[in-house]
Amino acid sequence: MTSRNLRLRRLSRATAAVSGRKRGTQPKVVALGGGMGLSASLTALRRITGDLTAVVTVADDGGSSGRLREELGVLPPGDLRKALAALCGDDEWGRTWSRVIQHRFESKGDLHEHAVGNLLIVALWEQLGDPVQALDLVGKLLGAHGRVLPMSAVPLELQALVRGHHPERPEEVVTVRGQATVALTPGEVQSVHVVPAAPPAVPEAVAAVLDADWVVLGPGSWFSSVIPHLLVPELLEALTATRARKVLSLNLAPQPGETEGFSPQRHLEVLGRHAPKLAMDVVLADEAAVPDRESLADAAKRLGAAVELAPVASPDGVPIHDPELLAAAYDRIFRMHGRIGPWR
């Protein structure tokens, strides 16, 4: 059996567990990303659907996550924790547990800067021996409005080719290693890849993408949180094969370091280079963050997408997404661009 046929067979098996379920009265949405960008999407999306799955990058190597990963050899729990916190409800139970799992210890000892949620997740991983089962249990404890899954079953190292990483050698291209380093690298990121190459996807994540009505990619750190999902072959194949419509949600501003000076359309061009066969349906951007609408529309068209401009930024001028405005934008996109689905 060829490797491609084997992958397709695995995709079919992964889908079997969910494909027979009767669709509900709301869209099945899968959101991919990591860090604060994914948290922004999840906080908005849980307001408009109860059938929500987060697929989270596992390349973090900084802070509490990096220390736990290095010491115990586990998946980095930090971005998974942030996704769970974003899915907590707005009632007293949800707000309390969101604060608890995000709480960081302050001390002069080994617990300094460790997040409670990171320790809880890793403890359940060790107890249950199954990352997905453990995350489901944490979600149940929190009353999370959705499911959180890692994108890969193994911790990944992110590596980037960077031009001008050393200011005194502006034309030199070097390899920068580690998500935390890539996110803040000086110079211009040319491309990223992961080690090990072709990592295994979590079957439940593949199944969720194949069974979705909508897939949302971004916002977030472009090279270290968004593009890594496209470097997991089974996940990229699922994103290409799924009948779901796909939204690419752009950032409100370039990120210092990895996307310094990037225009909105350049974000699309970079994504297209990493996954040239992946088509999108809609590109969502804040209307105030797009100085050249024609160029963005041209770049989106090359991905097969239409551009939707909407006010999604916080009204106070801080470059963060407003949950209610972002929820309204997603809801409008799902209704206007989606197939006629049962949630209509």
3D structure, described in words:
The longest helix is centred in the N-terminal third of the chain and has 17 residues, at 3-19. Helix 4 (78-86) runs antiparallel to helix 5. The strands form 2 sheets. A 7-stranded parallel sheet has the order 3-2-1-7-8-9-10, sandwiched between helices. The protein is globular and about 50 Å long. It is α/β, with parallel strands linked by helices. It has helices at residues 3-19, 35-45, 63-72, 78-86, 92-102, 116-128, 131-142, 179-183, 203-211, 222-226, 233-241, 264-274, 293-302, 323-337; strands spanning 29-33, 52-56, 147-150, 157-163, 173-177, 188-195, 214-217, 245-249, 282-286, 306-310.
Task: Kindly list the characteristics that best describe this protein.
alpha/beta; 10 strands; disordered C terminus; 344 residues; seven-stranded parallel beta sheet; 43% helix; three-stranded antiparallel beta sheet; disordered N terminus; globular
